[in-house]
């Protein structure tokens, strides 16, 4: 009798229904207590019928053999109606009377209890109708099964009392307005036929039904307005739902490939929205004002088409794409004669605060998304009983188009396969020798992966150092040369050499995940989800090591050590060009991976090996590529304000290319598995290793590294951070009333204690939210365990009742019953 459920991934995207929170338990228990008191009063009238008495006739004994069986009968019963298993336990009619009188069996489906309960509620509603309208969320929902009335004859007085309650409920429903009556009928836990009967009786039993000519015109007009507003609201909700980006494509992916692959595309859509936000902020507050008032340039570099699109140098160097193009003065535009003043825009201050506010808002959105995802995964998605909801109430009856019906069937079928696989998956207990061997193999695999990652990081480090020295030597040779102009061949070679480091790093990011998958073949994991998490951690280790080496190269060598040796007039624009090249090469190598790893491998498998098998979509590799590219975009927004536009274009193309390749070249996982927390895990990786690392690097650049003296909005300053301090000092000098701003800036902005304090408070809030979610999860687990224990208690009590009844029966009847059971 104890129900055992499984957890299901009801992500915000692919779960249609909302589940009730356990915060409503207090109201439910209050309702149950009220109904138990009502049932106790009703049971006092026929208490004599509940007492057990010995059976005296043989017919009654035969009836006992046909009575409702115990828990074992649900397993051993034959569908053809043949002779029952002799081991099946049969309950006597007296035991059934006791069972039918239990409050837990009468609360959920007893019409008398339901009518009595909602009679009292409609009375309260009528009394409070003049003051305010009660909320429908305050009504409890009881849905316990009942065997009330099963082979138990109802008392005539009890039936008459039930009819009186029904009559009183109809009278109270009649006194309610139409909307309140509909809401009350929806909340009553009766079947549709009984609800229709109550609605019909409440509607027909009216004292006076006015004719249409007697209804005033204002009432007609009011009804028309309400109907029009309601239809407009429904149309707007339908339009908003249809305007969700890639909604149909995501449903198709979910139906064919499951929630694991779907989580990748949902994560890609999330990154797309983040970059659209960054593009809007930098475009409105930096790019558009500077484009309206462009600076005066000295002499533009000669145009060399071709590699400039890949390197971002040449023509793009003196454009809105990079940091060096932006002005370090206040942009002013003369106003009309009526206003008598000028419109001014402080570009250095706008640049500083735009980047800072953009990162701050992104951080808030990330933390909020992560907290929401944590709550969805651990509070709702892991709650038991969702399998029953998915089986019996997941179909959307508003779907009528054939294509939508087919898509929904595929989606439900795939999710049920994942649930069945999760239910059937059991932890196999192995011997200690087998466990020791498995752990040794896994440790060896991790040692190989960590060693190869360290080797790749060292290789990239020394190669970046070699390319850096080569660039310095090239600058010295050009400065010492007597030639006035470089030849076209040397210019082309110089531009091509700028792509060497991005090509090497992208090649490592392309080849190493395949090596990790090869090493993973010798490991043994219990579930595909665990295998995916291990692959994600190994790819994350590789990406973090690559980005760490590159950040040291850009902010250590280029920005601090050798900006003059490299003859760089604007090292910020050079770092921006590097980030542009890395982002573009990452996209190119991702397309090569899609072409070689999916398309050519499918053709080789089907044409050469003559197998129908297709490659499986590599979630770990593709997700870490997205995180790597997004980290580059966040690092480069300070040096390349238009880099989010490049990232938006990249993600837009990547979605359609990956989706087309997935449909053509990939197959669903051979073993279905439930990605219950994949989206939460991806958001967490995006927040802490990716965004936190990018924010630390940008903050370090703005607080400590000296800007270039001849370009950019912060030229002539010791650090970028001093732009705010200079603006506050100028404002206090111009107007003495703003002197307090300099004090506030010195103690609240320049003082690092305030920054650490704000970060500490922020982390404390995150910690408390995680603890609250974890506490709610534990409470749900305890409540589920309590429900299972109550089921076991009921089985125990029923068995004890049957044993007591058997002891009270005469010995002769027990011998006759045992002989009849042995005859089977």
UniProtKB/TrEMBL annotation:
Residues 69-86 have a biased composition (Low complexity). It holds the Pfam family TMC. It is a multi-pass membrane protein. GO terms for cellular component: plasma membrane. The chain crosses the membrane at residues 261-288, 350-369, 435-463, 498-519, 540-560, 580-604, 678-703, 753-770. Residues 58-86 are annotated as: Disordered. GO terms for molecular function: mechanosensitive monoatomic ion channel activity. It is found in: Membrane. Residues 570-676 form the TMC domain. Its main location: membrane. Keywords: Membrane, Transmembrane, Transmembrane helix. Belongs to the TMC family. PANTHER family: TRANSMEMBRANE CHANNEL-LIKE PROTEIN 6, TRANSMEMBRANE CHANNEL-RELATED. This is Transmembrane channel-like protein. The lineage of its organism: Eukaryota, Metazoa, Chordata, Craniata, Vertebrata.
